[in-house]
Design goal:
The chain contains seven helices and eleven strands. It is α/β, with parallel strands linked by helices.
Length: about 250
């Protein structure tokens, strides 16, 4: 990837903080080195698609979907690193309709990155699928896993894969499990989260006061996010040369 300008797309601040301690401005491209840039896109496929398109128009020649994912396989625990070979749309079409494509990642690039990772890091491959929103029940996760054959789910990677494939540039996906099958972010909590993952304090205090979400749930979510961040940070420490050999400083173009 020496000749590529690599664009790393993260949806959430907690994901971006694994790459740089610099507080990224929202939806603004930040140059990490001559070979990589990063952008905080915000959650969802629309934001990811617009961001990926914009990066390519600005000269990026390879894309990375970087962040967290939900588990669809009961064997996947928080912190498990998901390095999928295939990206599924999450949509199951009727027999008389054409199915949406499943996009393969750049396997040579992915294999080089994997060889740099430490042995103690738990990793899986397979298929990652998409969801238009956060899945907040065990049943919804299990059903999506069965329907798509995927082990994990996120909201951004399929859109990034689609844009990259149509532009004929390589892409990979690096995701770490936060919520396992049996435990998901409560639906009530989502209203207290900004698009880039920041907390709306007043709304959070309100749902806590109303007991729509418990303190113990927040503690568990925090623990699972830390496990995922640890795995994502390990990728940056050990395999950063496959992501542009990122320095600790950043510049704003």
């Amino acid at each position: 990837m020496d000749d590529d300008v690599i664009g790393i797309i993260t949806a959430l601040r907690v994901e971006a903080s694994c790459v740089s301690s610099f507080r990224l401005p929202y939806r603004r491209m930040i140059r990490l080195s001559n070979g990589s840039v990063i952008i905080l896109s915000g959650m969802g496929d629309s934001a990811a698609r617009l961001t990926a398109t914009d990066l390519i128009e600005r000269g990026v020649t390879a894309l990375v979907s970087f962040g967290v994912a939900g588990g669809l396989d009961p064997n996947l625990r928080p912190g498990t690193l998901v390095l999928p070979e295939l990206i599924h749309s999450g949509k199951i079409t009727p027999p008389d309709e054409e199915e949406l494509p499943v996009y393969p990642v750049a396997l040579n690039w992915l294999n080089r990155l994997q060889k740099l990772l430490p042995d103690h890091l738990s990793t899986v491959g397979g298929t990652l699928t998409a969801s238009p929103g956060v899945l907040s029940t065990e049943q919804a996760k299990l059903e999506l896993g069965v329907a798509t054959g995927a082990c994990a789910v996120d909201m951004e990677s399929y859109a990034i894969a689609e844009v990259a494939t149509k532009a004929d540039i390589p892409f990979i996906v690096i995701r770490a499990i936060t919520d396992p099958v049996e435990f998901s972010p409560p639906a009530a909590l989502l209203g207290a989260i900004q698009p880039e993952g920041s907390v709306k304090l007043i709304q959070l205090l309100t749902i806590l006061f109303r007991r729509e979400v418990s303190i113990s749930t927040l503690i568990r979510l925090g623990k699972e996010i830390r496990a995922a961040r640890s795995s994502l940070a390990a990728v940056i420490r050990h395999a950063d040369k496959e992501l542009g050999s990122m320095p600790h400083t950043v510049t704003i173009p």
